[in-house]
Description:
Blueprint: H1 3-32, E1 34-38, H2 58-62, E2 70-75, E3 77-79, E4 96-98, E5 103-108, E6 125-128, E7 145-147, E8 153-155, E9 158-160, E10 175-177, E11 185-187
Parallel strand pairs: 1-2, 2-5, 3-6, 4-7, 5-8, 6-9, 7-10, 8-11
Amino acid sequence: QSFPTLFTKRLIYLNMRHFTFLFLLLLTSFLNAQTIYVKANATGANNGTSWANAYTSLQNALTNPCVSNTQVYVAQGTYRPDVGQGLVLNNRNASFVIPDGYKVYGGFPTGGDVFNNRKPETYATILTGNIGSLANAADNSYHIVTINGNNTLLDGFTISEGYANDNANSGGGGIYMQQQGTLSSIHRATV
């Protein structure tokens, strides 16, 4: 075989190997992706596997052991960081801690829907720190949302009524950023 023919065959072989590697990498990433559903008024199994069986607490979705590229879809409603399995009501230290690599999306209608139909400006998804007396800000959560990982996304939420008022918990009443390295993203959020 001539040099150009042999070279072309090797180049095709190397490109196919490279393509196969990229394809397998993308397929693995896709298969490892997981979507968890949260709906305040859900009545199903409360396991987050679908809108019908959505978690009623965002905290339960965030503490669910999952792969790092997990998406959490949250339907319209108001969510408190002190509500969830094993949590103590009215605990000012309660915070929605977003795990590394999670993408958390609000703005889905109350009944749930596909991603392309979410509208955060229409379907308010509120993360509130008002966990105690409604008229007393001094008993609200110190930090409503805590982000301590990289590559985290928070999109489509209204975050309100955090009260970081003591020396150990000053700053970040709405969102407290603890991560180092790559900055996480916050989109379409009202804080």
